[in-house]
């Protein structure tokens, strides 16, 4: 007798995929429908109507879940295809280093300053540095920290 009842009332396996989403949405719709009846019993008309509308949305969402999922999948694939086709960076190029970005944005900062004669003064460069070599060394040490 118990084995017969077990076969009738017990599922062989847990629902998965679309069926699991359907069951979850239908249970949620049932809960909101009960909340709507409870709000109606306490004469909260606005809350009752709101709960009922949410219950209907969850109910229809459960029924239409396979169509919703396939539509969302198409939208995501279309967006990914558009993003991949607009990529301009070749895959084999390495990203720029900090020194490359600094040189591109501030090309004049690595030059030594000019004095009154028009000659370059090697003593007074950028922020009092002696010239390009020291700045390049500092930028290189920042962008490539040594381990140790």
Short description, anyone?
The protein is 62% helix and 0% strand. It is mainly α.
What's the helix-strand series? Answer: HHHHHH
% residues in beta strands: under 5%
What is the number of independent domains?
2
Using DSSP, what is the number of strands? 0
- What is the overall silhouette? elongated
Q: Largest sheet, if any?
A: none
How much is the radius of gyration in Å? 34 Å
Helix/strand class: mainly alpha
Number of helices: 6
Distance between the termini: 74 Å
The chain-level mean pLDDT equals 75
Oligomer: single chain
List unreliable stretches of 5+ residues: none
Helix fraction, binned, reads 55-70%
Feature tags:
mainly alpha, 0% strand
Structure description:
With 148 residues, the chain is mainly alpha-helical. The protein folds into two domains: 13-85; 98-143, no CATH class. Helix content is 62%, strand content 0%. It has six helices and no strands. The protein has helices at residues 2-9, 18-41, 45-63, 65-85, 98-105, 132-143. It is elongated.
């Amino acid at each position: 007798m118990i084995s017969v009842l077990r076969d009738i009332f017990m599922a062989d396996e847990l629902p998965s995929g679309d069926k699991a989403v359907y069951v979850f949405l239908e249970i949620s719709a049932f809960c909101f429908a009960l909340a709507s009846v409870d709000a109606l019993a306490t004469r909260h008309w606005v809350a009752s109507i709101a709960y009922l509308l949410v219950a209907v949305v969850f109910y229809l969402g459960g029924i239409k879940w396979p169509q919703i999922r396939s539509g969302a999948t198409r939208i995501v694939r279309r967006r990914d295809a558009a993003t991949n086709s607009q990529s301009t960076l070749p895959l084999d190029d390495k990203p720029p280093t900090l020194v490359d970005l600094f040189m591109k944005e501030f090309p004049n900062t690595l030059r030594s300053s000019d004095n009154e004669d028009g000659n370059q003064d090697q003593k007074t460069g950028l922020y009092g540095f002696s010239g390009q070599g020291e700045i390049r060394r500092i930028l290189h040490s920042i962008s490539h920290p040594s381990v140790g």
